[in-house]
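FORM 7B - TANDEM STRUCTURE REPORT

SECTION 1: FIRST PROTEIN
SEQUENCE AND TOKENS:
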Amino acid sequence: MKSTHHSHRAGKPRAVRSVAAVVAASAMLLTGCGSGESGPPTLTWYINPDDGGQDVLAQQCSDASGGKYKIQTSLLPRDASSQREQLARRLAAGDTSMDIMSLDPPFVPELAEPGFLAKPPADVASATTKDTLEGPLQGATWNGELVAVPFWANTQLLWYRESAAKAAGLDMSKPVTWDQVIKAAKSQDKYLGVQGVRGEAMSV
């Protein structure tokens, strides 16, 4: 998942709005707009080193703007903890080069609470949350406000023992909640296990 941090400078909200509208499908953090240089602004998108197609998307959006702006990418470290550290330090220092960020879902609350993430414009929020699953949408929300734009997420699989679910009265042919699964496991004296890495795992 990936919203905006508040730039403390007045500055070019139209550029941010138009970029957000074009890059509507991204898990990004849209931030205060680029530099004060003359000519079309260049926006920097801090991206994760994965196969999310962010470089291609940045180029497509730049081309689609018709020369109104350019999006360049800057690669974040490979592991999630180092990504978080770099982003948090830059934001806390007031780094104005941070126009767009890709952000893992567990870090949304941490960066939203001190006010680093701004509410996306209404048109962007409307376009990017249409037909979005409830889980990713909740992960992009803080204190009841959308602060990030859901882009893409890992696929998670739940494996379960049919006999234990049946004995607990859990109907797995229908949607179930984590509360139901936890209650069922306790009633059958079973354990739940989550496979994941630090910085993600159960929070994702």
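SECTION 2: SECOND PROTEIN
SEQUENCE AND TOKENS:
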Amino acid sequence: MSDNPLFKRTIHKHDVPSQFLPEESRSIRVYLPPGFQQWISYPVVYCQDGEDFFNFGRIATHTQRLILEEGWDPFIIVGVDVDKKRRTSEYAPDGERYSIYTRFFAEELIPWVESHYPVRDTPDQRVLAGDSLGGAVSLSLAIAYPALFNRIISLSGAFYDSYVEQIRQAASLENVQIWMVVGLQEREYPTDRGTFDFVELNRKTVRLLENKGAKVKYAEKNGEHKWGFWQQELPEALAAFLGEAPPEFD
């Protein structure tokens, strides 16, 4: 079994220095695809909640299989870790650490990754992915930095009022492509900001995004607000941007 390339995943860990974050660095993990070569450039997926995407979402395992067994072109994954105690503060637009986190992400993390790994540096070759608040902040980054990001994966996005206001104030989102899913068993989900109907939050967000010209692929499926649901959806989510023949957005 140890000789099977499926079990030989390459994941590097780094601490990215920061002048914006008070702790002066942020831990990331980087998955390199099978057959990785430094002289080839690769599409890249940037994941919020990086540790969870790797440990609970098993995104590296999924990707290894999709490349080796289904013939997908290889891509790199960067998981950006977060301290769960600071997560809402960093991910929510009205959080006290939101501005420093998003500046770190766009102005420090992206240049650091691009100077250390052969990732492609155009918006259509960068994908932002996140679950719950991570999905919402991924969209938020695309609104704030349209020259950097316009491809988003949102797993049960926690689109609170502060995100909705960002979408409303955006001039146009015609360049944005976003893949969204929410679980039908997420209608009364308790959070640190109260209990929310995530189905309604996502339906409202889809309407707003479409009104702003964004291209949306949206699905409601049986599932709860947890990684058991999101992990199953990851291959389809990745296929929207990185599959052998990515489907056209509406």
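SECTION 3: OBSERVATIONS ON SECOND PROTEIN
The longest helix spans residues 98-116.
The beta strands are 10-17, 25-32, 44-47, 76-80, 126-131, 151-155, 177-183, 189-191, 194-196, 215-221.

SECTION 4: SIGNATURE
Preparer initials: ____
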